[in-house]
Amino acid sequence: MARRRCSKPSCQGYAVSTLTYVYADSTAVLGPLATYAEPHCYDLCQMHSERLTAPRGWEIVRITPDPDALKPTSDDLEALANAVREAARPRYVPGGDVDHPPAPHGTVEGTRRGHLRVLTHDTSYDTPSSNEQYPHEDL
Ligand SMILES: [Zn+2]
Questions:
Q1: Chunked in runs of 10, what are the mean pLDDT values of the chain (139 residues)?
Q2: C-alpha of residue 67 to centroid of ligand 1, in Å
Q3: CA 25 – ligand 1 centroid, Å
């Protein structure tokens, strides 16, 4: 559907609202752009909508669109919420503060003594008999 232009002479602006004259009530109703152009309606651009003045003895009724109608649907909000949660998921924690908290001071000291490395060496040395020591299959 081609966009309609302002009905004001010498105005090339695109219509954003439709002015309807209700002669019975001497009221000019300025509302959202009508879906179909009608003879008794006048499409106005943004500028002329704001500058609209009622003829003498007439009253202008401005109908502002329902703000709720412009909001995203519930599905869109849910999708947006999911996207936010996805983005907030801590894939990477700088410094590993969450997944790998700093070891207590005493543990660090123990590691520095090197005993654990010696035990690791002995374990690997006994690897051939590890199956007998840990019969996982029988559990
Ligand atoms: Zn205009």
A1: 86 94 91 83 94 90 74 73 78 58 53 51 53 57
A2: 24
A3: 25
**pTM for the full model?**
0.45
Cα 70 to middle of ligand 1, angstroms: 24
What is the CA(50)–ligand 1 centre distance, in A? 10
Give the residues across from 76 on adjacent strands.
Answer: none
Q: Residue 79 has what pLDDT?
A: 80
Domain ranges of the chain: 15-65, 74-126
CA 23 to ligand 1 center in whole angstroms = 22
Q: What was the pLDDT predicted at 62?
A: 92
Dihedral pair phi/psi, residue 9, rounded to 5°: -60, 145
DSSP codes of every residue in 35-79: SS--TTEEEEEHHHHHH--PPTT-EEEE-PPPHHHHSPPHHHHHH
Q: Quote the CA–CA distance of 133 and 50 in Å, as a whole number.
A: 88
Rounded to the nearest angstrom, the distance between the alpha carbon of 5 and the centre of ligand 1 is 8
